[in-house]
């Protein structure tokens, strides 16, 4: 009789263990299988953004990264920053430079168009300081073209603080200031 009680207790323990094992497998399936699918989707979207960035499609890369971050806000690098955030900063910088060159080629005189270049460089600077003297030069010129000499001088000072020699752009801003004063004087002299 004692043997049958022990045998019965053993079956109960085994049954409880088997039920616990089945529950653990079900929970793991619910928790981990969708995560694997999510990880695969996440990897695909990130690779798509990286591919656009590598291909020099700056605006599309920026949009792809921003879409990726909206879908996967938990995606961070070891420093706690958004995954590939530095690529987006560089992409904004390149997009600003591309827009700047396009406006030069078109000989654009519309200050609103030049303000876009200023805006794009501002977005690049939100991620990291501008990377080289040409970025600052483009930014200064865009401010001048947009008619904002004060901001142009501020950009020159920011570049000089980073150790860049901005003499060429200082002369450009000085000439633009003289030209603006002459234009204002001529406007006043008109009857």
What is the count of DSSP helices, taking H or I runs of 4+ residues?
7
DSSP summary, beta strand count: 0
Which secondary-structure class do the elements indicate?
Answer: mainly alpha
Please give the domain count.
2
- Cα radius of gyration in angstroms: 30 Å
Largest sheet, strands/sense/barrel? none
N-end to C-end Cα span: 124 Å
Proportion of residues in extended strands: under 5%
Oligomer: single chain
> Which sequence of SSEs, written as H and E, runs from N to C?
HHHHHHH
Task: List the uncertain runs.
Answer: none
Shape verdict: rod-shaped
Kindly summarize this structure in a few lines.
With 191 residues, the chain is mainly α.
Fold and architecture overview:
- With 191 residues, this protein is mainly alpha-helical.
- The protein has two domains: 16-83; 109-186.
- It has seven helices and no strands.
- It has helices at 2-54, 58-71, 85-106, 111-127, 133-146, 149-161, 167-189.
- α5 (133-146) packs antiparallel against α6.
- The termini are far apart.
- The mean pLDDT is 87.
């Amino acid at each position: 009789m004692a043997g049958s009680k022990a045998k019965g207790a053993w079956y109960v323990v085994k049954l409880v263990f088997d039920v616990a094992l089945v529950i653990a497998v079900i929970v793991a399936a619910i928790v981990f299988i969708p995560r694997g699918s999510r990880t695969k989707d996440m990897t695909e979207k990130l690779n798509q953004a990286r591919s656009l960035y590598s291909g020099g499609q700056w605006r599309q890369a920026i949009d792809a990264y921003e879409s990726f971050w909206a879908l996967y806000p938990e995606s961070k690098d070891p420093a706690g920053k958004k995954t590939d955030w530095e690529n987006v900063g560089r992409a904004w910088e390149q997009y600003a430079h591309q827009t700047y060159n396009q406006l030069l080629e078109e000989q654009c005189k519309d200050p609103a168009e030049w303000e876009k270049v200023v805006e794009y460089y501002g977005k690049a600077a939100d991620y990291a300081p501008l990377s080289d003297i040409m970025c600052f030069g483009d930014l200064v010129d865009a401010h001048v073209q947009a008619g904002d000499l004060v901001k142009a001088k501020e950009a020159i000072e920011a570049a000089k603080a980073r150790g860049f020699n901005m003499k060429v752009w200082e002369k450009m801003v000085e000439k633009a200031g003289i030209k603006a004063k002459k234009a204002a004087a001529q406007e006043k002299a008109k009857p």
